[in-house]
Task: inverse folding
């Protein structure tokens, strides 16, 4: 006869408000096999756990049912408590009285009856539970960092400085990300490049970091501690070992009129190019879609002028196989595309630009060398209108969220403009000013009070061109919705931050969840902000949600410390919730018939067929064998097995049937 | 012939009779039989929704209920204001069972929401194949397509085209040989029903619309709303007064433009009913069309506008 203890939690009033907890404990006490049944206000608290531990010893319990919240929340807590009292942790189960009962029903008798049913079925399950023992797996102490912006750079450096190997993959020809495009950074107005480029160089030179630029993640297999990544190293058409980065090829390339991605389309670059002079690595790539040789079959000017003969037109994409133990996702964000703003004429009027384009105009390394010249005719704009929330917080545009960084960078833009054009007029249309952060609100006040930027609270409904001016039509809601029309020379849209191109596909490749806007989802919005739901994969920066540099850097360091903690163990402990094939002794009598249907059904390639031989070495039977390191316990094979020869440990058919029979 | 329910609304029987005439003229060749909703009533536009919420739903709901008796799935509503009311009622009744119950109780007849209101552009766009190959006299003009405020808004309810820069009418006029100009005030407010109470305001607002179209080199403004048409056409004297210009650009309905391209007669399409004579200016370069104010006296404003001017004085 079993000796089971049942512990009913009130969860404050979360459960007890609608469920009669003492009544549940009382009813369950009468069940055969239950020797101890009590209720308590907070079972997860220290006194609650002590109660469980003492009861195990006192009543010699051989099974525990904690009737509280979701096992997602506290199963590890209670199993640990049981283990401390000497009970095998897998003999402890949870009945979910909160999410499955008290939160979704009104207070009435039927709610308590349902709660009793939920506990009763768990009691029947526990009677069938077997002690299980956790599985140990080795850890590959190398981290993969995807994305070479400031988030990736910070995470890579922190992990590398903790003494672990890092492989960094960056899609573009250079690392640096959006931060390398910025002119100055708020709230101190220090030059973005000046603080970023030393970090970029550090990444390139760090003995623990292997950098793959112009590369993308092709596929991912494996699990925490033991990932297997395929990286596609796209053909640069340049031998990186020979190239010295002298730049002669770019100077002599005849195809010069290609819009520069780095300058956000405001400048040009040749077909063989480094995105910017401080690029890391400073080795050019050939853009095959624009190179005359690849389009027309002749030219080869770069090959002729290259002093080290590093040009390789026949170079092909390489696939690299890398084994890593943890992954940091730091793929960043993008800004909203022009199609969203027909009413603002973005894409139609040259002088309507978005925030990143303004950064390039203001940057000393930009197409105007930092002089304030508008794109259409190169004239200095006398009046500039900045529009915050272009797309953000606008459900009509499908983006209800706040892009978070725009209030600050708009203030910065207006300030930078006023610093360069003292007599100019800068107007900012805003909904609210969200400037929470150290020195942030002071920064916005400085723009308004010291630099004389005119803030107008209201939205812009339309921008159109008239007599060479951009007419910005909006409302001033602080003056009673008075219509405002400003004749501007240039308009800067603080267009919404959106998930980066390809974020969705990458998330699917890595089995990471994402939100409706394709930002990667954290495991818990408050308590596990840098982890994903996939063990061993962590998040850093704006790929999770729009965020500014200080926040990105903090999160990257957070993700790095998670990786370092993971790598501090010599082996990982895994839950023994895996599938096993019924292997009797002698194995000849295993119920597995060797049909091998489970082999292709396994999504993790964890099943293979094994020949069972007799003493003479003759094959007498073929049976399935499951690799405990690869099995994720999904149960697909269990459902598929025709002869019920496979069982999931902890969720065996016997246990599930016992649960059902109790209802 | 395909049967489709037809709700003309008050404008198409009165001030915008030519819209009704031209629509009927092209519907036949397009293969459509317009079946007028029996015993139809006012849609409640302009006033009901600012007075009484239930009334503003009950009026159009009654029309929807009557249309359901015809056994059709779609109802063509050429007037943009009527369309707005009908599509809103259709949407609100579908969204809330409670609202539907209440409204059905008020109108005293069942309303299942099985008939979907279609605006004129939706209708023409869906069936563009049925007039595309009947173009015998291409409408070879540079035109500004003016959508007005109600056809595309609110997007949540109309679910039709891009609210700030719609393209449907532009595509339609291209099909009949016209060139749709890129201009700035496609969906700007013309002043709508203020035409009666604040005619000067309508003059001011509509002047901006006409001025921009003329500036961009339009030879005609093509519209899909009787209110827009009457404001831009009938209130031309107020517009010219507000702008200090003498704009002569004609304002025609999309149905008239299609009819012309099909080779139908001007009278058949009601073009003779316009206040501003339908005479297209020469194709000109941008900015060249604005005439100096001195010439303002030339074409006399049509007599219909006179009473209002005196009323104001």
Result:
């Amino acid at each position: 006869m079993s000796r089971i203890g049942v512990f009913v939690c009130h969860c404050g009033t979360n459960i007890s408000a609608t469920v009669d907890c003492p009544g549940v404990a009382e009813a369950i006490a009468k069940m055969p096999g239950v020797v101890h049944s009590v209720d308590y206000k907070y079972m997860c608290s220290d006194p609650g756990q002590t109660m469980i531990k003492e009861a195990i010893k006192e009543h010699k319990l051989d099974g525990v049912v904690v009737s509280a919240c979701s096992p997602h929340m506290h199963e590890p807590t209670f199993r640990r408590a049981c283990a401390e009292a000497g009970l095998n942790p897998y003999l402890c189960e949870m009945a979910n009285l909160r999410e499955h009962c008290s939160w979704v029903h009104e207070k009435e008798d039927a709610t308590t009856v349902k709660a009793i049913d939920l506990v009763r079925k768990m009691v029947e399950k526990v009677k069938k539970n077997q002690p299980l023992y956790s599985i140990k797996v080795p850890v590959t102490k190398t981290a993969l960092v995807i994305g070479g912006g400031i988030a990736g750079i910070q995470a890579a450096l922190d992990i590398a400085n903790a003494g672990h190997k890092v492989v960094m993959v960056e899609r573009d020809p250079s690392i640096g990300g959006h931060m390398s495009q910025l002119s100055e950074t708020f709230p101190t107005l220090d030059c973005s490049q000046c603080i970023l480029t030393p970090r970029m160089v550090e990444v390139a030179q760090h003995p623990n970091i292997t950098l793959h630029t112009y590369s993308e993640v092709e596929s991912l297999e494996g699990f925490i501690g033991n990932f297997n990544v395929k990286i596609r190293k796209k053909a640069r058409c340049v031998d990186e070992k020979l190239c010295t980065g002298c730049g002669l090829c770019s100077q002599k390339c005849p195809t010069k009129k290609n819009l520069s991605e780095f300058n956000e389309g405001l400048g040009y670059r040749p077909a063989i190019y480094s995105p910017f002079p401080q690029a890391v690595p400073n080795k050019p790539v050939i853009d095959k879609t624009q190179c005359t040789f690849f389009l027309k079959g002749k030219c080869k000017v770069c090959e002729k002028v290259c002093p080290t003969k590093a040009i390789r037109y026949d170079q092909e994409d390489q696939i690299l196989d890398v084994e890593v133990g943890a992954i940091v996702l730091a793929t960043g964000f993008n800004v909203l595309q022009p199609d969203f703003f027909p009413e603002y004429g973005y894409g139609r009027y040259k002088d309507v630009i978005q925030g990143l384009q303004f950064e390039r105009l203001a940057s000393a390394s930009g197409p105007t060398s930092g002089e304030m010249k508008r794109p259409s005719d190169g004239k200095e704009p006398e009046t500039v209108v900045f529009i915050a929330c272009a797309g953000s917080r606008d459900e009509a545009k499908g983006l209800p969220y706040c892009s978070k960084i725009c209030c600050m960078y708009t203030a910065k833009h207006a300030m930078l403009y006023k610093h360069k054009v003292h007599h100019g007029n800068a107007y900012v249309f805003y909904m609210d000013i969200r400037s929470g952060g150290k020195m942030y609100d002071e920064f916005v006040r400085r723009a308004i009070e010291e630099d004389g930027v005119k803030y107008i609270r209201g939205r812009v409904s339309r921008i159109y061109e008239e007599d060479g001016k951009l007419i910005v039509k909006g409302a001033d809601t602080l003056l009673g919705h008075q219509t405002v029309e400003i004749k501007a020379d240039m308009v800067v849209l603080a267009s919404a931050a959106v998930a980066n191109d390809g974020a969705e596909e990458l998330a699917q490749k890595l089995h990471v969840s994402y939100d409706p806007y394709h930002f990667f989802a954290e495991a818990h919005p408050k308590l596990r902000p840098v982890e994903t739901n996939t063990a061993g994969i962590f998040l850093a920066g704006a790929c999770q949600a729009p965020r500014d540099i200080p926040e990105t850097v903090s999160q990257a360091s957070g993700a790095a410390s998670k990786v370092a903690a993971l790598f501090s163990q010599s082996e990982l402990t895994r839950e023994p919730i895996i599938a096993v094939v019924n292997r009797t002794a002698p194995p000849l009598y295993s119920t597995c018939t060797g049909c091998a249907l489970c082999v292709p059904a396994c999504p993790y390639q964890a099943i293979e067929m094994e020949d069972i031989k007799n003493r003479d070495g003759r094959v007498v039977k073929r049976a399935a064998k499951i690799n405990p390191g690869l099995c994720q316990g999904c149960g697909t094979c269990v459902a598929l097995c025709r002869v019920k020869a496979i069982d999931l440990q902890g969720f065996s058919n016997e246990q599930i049937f016992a649960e059902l029979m109790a209802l | 012939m395909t049967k489709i329910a037809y709700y003309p609304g008050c404008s198409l029987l009165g001030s915008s009779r030519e819209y009704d005439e031209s629509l009927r003229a092209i519907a036949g060749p397009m293969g459509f039989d317009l079946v007028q909703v029996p015993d139809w009533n006012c849609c409640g536009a302009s006033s009901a929704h600012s007075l009484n919420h239930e009334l503003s739903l009950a009026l159009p709901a009654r029309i929807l209920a009557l249309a359901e008796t015809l056994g059709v799935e779609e109802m063509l509503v050429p007037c943009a204001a009527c369309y707005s009311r009908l599509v809103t009622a259709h949407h609100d009744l579908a969204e809330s069972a409670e609202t539907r119950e209440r409204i059905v109780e008020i109108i005293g007849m069942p309303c299942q929401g099985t008939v979907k209101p279609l605006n004129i552009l939706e209708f023409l766009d869906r069936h563009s194949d049925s007039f595309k190959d009947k173009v015998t006299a291409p409408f070879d003009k540079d035109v500004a397509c003016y959508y007005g405020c109600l056809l595309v808004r609110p997007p949540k309810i109309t679910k039709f085209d891009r609210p700030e820069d719609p393209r449907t009418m532009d595509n339609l006029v291209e099909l009949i040989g016209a060139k749709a100009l890129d201009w700035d005030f496609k969906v700007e407010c013309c002043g709508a029903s203020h035409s009666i109470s604040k005619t000067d305001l309508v003059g001011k607002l509509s002047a901006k619309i006409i001025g921009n179209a003329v500036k961009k080199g339009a030879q005609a403004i093509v519209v899909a709303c009787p209110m827009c048409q009457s404001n831009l056409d009938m209130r031309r004297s107020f517009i010219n007064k507000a702008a200090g210009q003498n704009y002569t650009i004609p304002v025609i309905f999309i149905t008239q433009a299609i009819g012309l391209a099909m080779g139908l007669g001007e009278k058949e399409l009601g073009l003779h009913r316009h206040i501003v004579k339908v005479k297209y200016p020469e194709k000109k370069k941008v900015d060249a069309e604005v005439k100096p104010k001195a010439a303002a006296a030339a074409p006399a404003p049509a007599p219909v506008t006179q009473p209002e001017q005196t009323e104001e004085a």
Chain B touches chain A through eleven residues (CB under 8 Å). Chain B has 15 helices and eight strands. Residues 2-121 of chain B form a domain with the Glutathione S-transferase Yfyf (Class Pi); Chain A, domain 2 fold (CATH 1.20.1050.140).
